[in-house]
Amino acid sequence: MTVKQQVANILENNLGEYISGEEIAFKLNCSRGAVWKAVKALKSDGYAIDAVTNKGYKLDKASDILSLDGIKKHLDKQLDDLDIQVFSTIDSTNNYIKSLAEKGAKEGTVAIAAQQTGGKGRLGRSFFSPADSGLYMSILLRPKMQADRAVRITTLAAVSVAVAAQKAFGVNTDIKWVNDVYIGGRKICGILTEASLDMESGGLDYAVCGIGINIYEPKEGFPDEIKDTAGAVLSKRTADAKNKMAACLLNSFFELYTSGVENAYLAEYKKRLIWVGEQINLIRGDKTVPATMLGVNDECALIVRYEDGKQETITSGEISIRKRA
Fold it and tell me: Strand pairing of 109-113 and 320-323?
């Protein structure tokens, strides 16, 4: 670990309190000049550090900088062997993890970023991933699973986000079919699972689960195309929120993923599912069909009843739903 990383760790562990450069230097067995350089570098990375003569350095209580050490503070001990890589910015965490997967990286390799320049959404769309307001994560999995059941990864991830946000911040969370997480009627999370197929077995060689979460509303606001539907987990900046959310998400995800219980997430998914029993529109491309949402089956496929009384069970595919006014 570099001096810079160690200084960041000390400041995070003494959040809101001054600690002298001399004390930090003693702890790290380095010079006070090395500490000063590390602090200067951290400030350039966005750390809100106050420096006062005869007092030392203090990391502001409202500081919310994504860091590996910050995440590990909240991570369950049984997840210590996860290979977590943290970036201030990256083109796409999914693309990065896919490249590692092709080189044989192990299950549990995770990329987490504070910004994406080429974030990916469903159906080939881009995913809005600005700096300083969101959390973007991709997890490498090597599940023993047939390709047609890969939707389980996505729905498990949705439950994990919903549970993590509620545990971390006490907010009430809902899920809109298939995998959108909502707070107060607004979408705070998008999930994209991409997979590589083993042609011989028909199973998955690997899957990459990408999760993007709006922790705060961007300072400049959401883009016009999503401003009426997008929301955020928190209404104001909160100390250590990104690290806490990242760790709680990983804790929740791997608790469900490694439980050994098939569909361990299903009861929680159904409990949080919105619009059950209500009037919706099914949207396929430019075609909209009215229906009543009856719920989901044990594979999280949507069950609807059309106006003529017929029922249909629908897998995700290229379909979305909207509540009718």
Answer: unpaired
Handedness of CA 273, 276, 279, 284 (dihedral sign): positive
- CA 182 to chain centroid: 13
Torsion, Cα 14 17 18 21, to 10 degrees, reads: 0
Supply the CATH number for residue 93's domain: 3.30.930.10
Contact 207, 189 (CB under 8 A): no
The 3 state secondary structure assigned to 166-189 is HHHHCCCCEEECCCEEEECCEEEE
Closest of 236, 249, 250, 232 to residue 61, by C-alpha: 236
Q: Is the pTM of this model over 0.90?
A: no
pLDDT of 23-78, one tens digit each? Answer: 999 999 999 999 999 999 888 777 889 999 999 999 987 788 898 888 998 999 99
Cα first-last separation, the chain: 55
Domain CATH number, residue 46:
1.10.10.10
Structure tokens at 168: 């971390």
Tally of CB atoms within 10 A around 127: 18
